Amino acid sequence: MHRPTDSPTTNNDPFIWLTHDHNHILSLFRQFLQHKNTTIKSRINTFEHIKQAVEKHEKIEEKIFYPTAKRTEEVRELGFESYEEHFVLNFLLNKLDEMPKEHEEWQPTFTVLFENMERHFAKEEKEIFEKMRKSLTQEQLNQIMAEIIELTK
Ligand SMILES: [Fe+2]
Ligand SMILES: [Fe+2]
Question: What share of the chain in percent tops pLDDT 90?
Answer without folding.
Answer: 56
